[in-house]
Amino acid sequence: MSDVSIEAPAQSAKPTIFFDGVSSRRRQVMLTFSDALEIAEDGKALARWAYADIRRADGPAGVLRLACTTGSPLARLEIRDAALAADVTARCLHLDDHQTTRRGIAKIVGWSVAAAVSIVCVVLFGVPLAADRLAPLVPKPVERRIGDAAEVQMKTIFGRSVCEDPAGKAAFIKLVNRLRDAAGLDDDSMTAGVLPTSVPNAFALPGGKVFVLKGLLDKAESPDELAGILAHELGHLKHYDNMRGLIYNGGTSFLIGLLFGDVTGSSAVIFASRSVVEASYSREAETAADTFAIEIMHKLGRSPKPAAELMFRITGKEGGSTLTTILASHPLTEDRLARMTREDRPASGPPLLTDKEWQSLKLVCGSGKV
Amino acid sequence: MNNMQWTPIGSEPLPPPLPPTRVDFTGNRPEFRKLVTKGAVLELVTFGFYRFWLVTDIRRHLWTHTAIDGDAAEYTGRAKELLVGFLFALAILVPIYLAYFLVGIEFERWQGFASAPLFLAFYAFGQFAIFRARRYRLTRTVWRGVRFWMDGSGWAYSLRAMLWGLLVFLTLGLALPWREAALERYKMQHTHYGDLSGDFEGDGWTFFKRGWWLWLLSPVALVIFPLAPFFYAEFKAREWRWWLDGIRIGGVSLSSELPHDAFYGLYWKVIGWWTLLSMIFAAYLGGATMLVVRLTGLPAEQVFGPENGAGSIPMLVAMVVGYFAVALAVNIVMRVYLQRDLWAKVLETVEVYNVAAAADVRGSGQLASALGEGFADGLDVAGF
User: Fold this and answer.
1) What integer pLDDT is reported at residue B382 of this predicted model?
2) Nearest to B369 by CA among B61, B165, B203, B139
3) Distance, in angstroms, between B238 CA and closest chain A CA?
4) Do A149 and B379 touch (CB under 8 A)?
5) Interface TM-score (ipTM) > 0.90
6) Domain map (residue ranges) of chain A
7) pLDDT tens digits for A279-298?
8) Minimal Cα–Cα distance from B179 to chain A, Å?
9) What is the mean predicted confidence (pLDDT) over A361-365?
10) pLDDT of residue A369 exceeding 60
11) How many CA atoms, within 13 angstroms, populate the side-chain half-sphere of residue A182?
12) What integer is the mean pLDDT of A132-161?
């Protein structure tokens, strides 16, 4: 009874409000401290909260808002009187047990860092390994389908259709076939063509498609120059670089996106970290394709040096232009030229194309400018 | 009471209407700033994972300090729910992402770039996420010991949003007010507070009348760039006011006297901060470049060159550090001005009529999962 009499004056100044969690009725209540907190409205008991079960709920300044873990989950007791609030706080020893503490935050930080480290490790070691192992296992038909899709896109960008001049095409096929035999690529699905665009570039697509853009053909001064570039692209096919790149890019962008909470991968951080990681990966693939090109050219008894000279001519003259970026992103010019020059050997095999074939190849897209 | 309707309007002996109740926001600004600053730092060191905790803390702060009729609201959502929702959303989105990739290949085989419309699928998911995220937030909103809740279907909402979106696209944006009205009506009619049901009485035509000239003038903003923030602020203020005016829950209704120029200051402050931070970042980069050039003795263009791997590493580190610092500061500025200050500014204009209708409401409704929030997070969509 003495407890209640303590409440009485406090009650009149600042009411203690109880919401029972069942209805939104605002009930003005009296508190009694017995072995549990008793909440009563006009002498009628509404709830009885054990001190150990009382928790602090979010409340505005000046209001101690309480909840009870064993009562109705939304029942709230609001104490506005500071002295009464202090009294209740002193009795409830587990008031703040559910709040995020410093240790809780340290745990969040720790686990986040662990998650980030493991994702980074997977990006740096796991994904390349998976790409290397999985790429050769991708079934040929799947690879061809992806290649078909890429081909349609490339043709949308670089124009219309493959150059069809019969003599030039025959020469091109001959050149590609000689390289392919030397490379030991199975030829069941291989296609190759020249696309009529002034961009100086060449690329290999999944499923054995090699395309030379007319711009590169125009800059080439001998069959060996072109052959070296083609051999490089065949190297990409031989090493499954397309599929490896696809798995690798898909995997890294997905994982880095996961880290930053964005599955589709659009923010700047993702873009930046992806390009840094991928650049190193693609440089490795390019160096391997160069090695392959050198081997092929030696096997054919020709020097790999002219191809590097052609690349140097293109980037030397047009360095900085955005359209040459695919070539420019290779580990370029000086290093590559130096390497190919080291591998320079006098020609021991027959020329890859006769002068006449070379001339007709140069005119495969017709003599006009594109 | 029925015979009253015979008397002509205006002459009926109305009881004196109860004065409207105000909504008070009592949040302390330095406290909020401290909260978001600490949160931004933790977000940075946790690679963004802390965002679930930060978002929860921000909501807890805003909800707790918002009092209607003298009683403060409470946000009972917890960060772990958001984390779990995000992981669930990932589990669903990852296979969809893969399927999207494979279907995309088939489309591309057929015609170049034909897969672009597949983005629509993600848009539909985004709308679904907006609906479900609001449902999550509402079910975690408690006032006077009773929670808000929502029924209705996220996919039905998404379908409506898509169709209305198409109409807005076809009318070059003119149908936007009607889209917003229709979607808000769907959301509000499926909103409940205990056993009271919500409704939305705003109509597209009212909103259109308030903002059509902004639509007409929007091309001007593309030419005269500094006008854009004014236009956007005008649009947002009109939208907020129209939205608040339309809200009904049971017999309770809201109205707002938000002035049309209410947000000018907020947007310009954000732009000012942003400009200042950009300038600091530029100066920092300039200084860092000079330092690197001085220390390594390399010419400046070589420091940035792709060939010079070793030389560009200190520069790269400096750039990354600077970028993160700026991102952190921008984050704090955005949250303080565009979340806290905007919230306070809007709330101080709100009046609540007939709040007595919510004096004795029976609680009901189930908690919704945070899956929608997870989707919204994974797809980078925001909605209210």
Assistant:
1) 59
2) B139
3) 30
4) no
5) no
6) 16-91, 100-137, 138-362
7) 566 777 888 888 988 998 88
8) 27
9) 83
10) no
11) 26
12) 79
- Taking an 8 Å cut-off on Cβ atoms, the answer to whether A145 and B105 are in contact is yes
Q: Residue A270: pLDDT band by 50, 70, 90 thresholds?
A: low
Would you give the DSSP letter of residue A81? -
How, if at all, do strands B21-25 and B191-193 pair?
A: unpaired
Chain B neighbours among A 33-62 (CB < 8 Å)?
57-61
Q: Please report which confidence band the pLDDT of residue B87 belongs to, taking 50, 70 and 90 as the band edges.
A: confident
Residue B300's pLDDT is what? 56
- What residues of chain B lie within 8 A of the CB of A116, using their CB? 46-47
Phi, psi of B142 (to 5 degrees): -120, 135
The token pair at B48 is 């963004």
**Across B134-155, average pLDDT:** 91
Tokens of A42: 């006009």
What single-letter amino acid sits at A42? D
User: Any chain A CB within 8 A of the CB of B361?
Assistant: yes
- pLDDT tier at A1, thresholds 50, 70, 90: very low
Q: Tell me whether residues B64 and A75 touch, CB distance under 8 A.
A: no
Residue B53: name the closest of B28, B81, B87 by CA. B81
User: What's the CATH fold of domain A16-91?
Assistant: PH-domain like (2.30.29)
pLDDT, tens digit, 9 for 90 and up, residues B28-56: 999 999 999 999 888 888 877 888 899 99
Measured CA distances, B86 to A113, A259, A344, B94 (Å): 18, 12, 57, 12
For B356, nearest residue in chain A (alpha carbons): A25
- Tell me the backbone φ, ψ of residue A345, rounded to 5 degrees: -135, 150
Q: Collapsing DSSP states into helix, strand and coil, what is residue B201?
A: coil
B263, two tokens: 């947000």
Q: Which residues of A touch B112 (CB under 8 A)?
A: 152-153, 155-157
CB contact under 8 A, B90 and A258: yes
pLDDT at B272 over 50: yes
Q: Are A308 and A316 contacting, i.e. CB atoms less than 8 angstroms apart?
A: no
Inter-chain residue contact A263 with B97, CB threshold 8 Å: yes
Identify the band that residue B19 occupies on the pLDDT scale cut at 50, 70 and 90. Answer: confident
The Cα B100–Cα B95 span in angstroms is 8
Residue of B nearest to A272 (CA): B320
B72 in contact with chain A, both atoms CB, cutoff 8 A:
yes
Please give the Cα distance from B188 to B200 (Å, whole number): 6
User: What is the model's pLDDT at position A277?
Assistant: 57
Residue B362, sorted as left (phi over 0), alpha (psi -120 to 50) or beta, turns out to be beta
Residue among B49, B143, B361 minimizing CB distance to A108: B49
What is the pLDDT, as a whole number, of residue B108?
66
Strand partners, A68: A54
Contact criterion met (CB below 8 Å) for B291 and B300:
no
Cα B60 from chain centre: 16
Angle of helix A127-134 relative to helix A241-259, nearest 10 degrees?
150
**Longest Cα separation, chain B:** 95
Question: What are the pLDDT digits (tens) for B225-235?
Answer: 788 888 889 99
Calpha distance B329→B284 (Å, rounded) = 15
Residue pairs spanning A and B at CB distance below 8 A: 150
Give yes or no for a contact between B76 and B363, defined as CB atoms under 8 angstroms apart. no
Q: Band of the pLDDT at A308, cuts 50, 70, 90?
A: confident
Buried b (16+ CB within 10 A) or exposed e, B343-365: bbbbbebbbbbebeebeebebeb
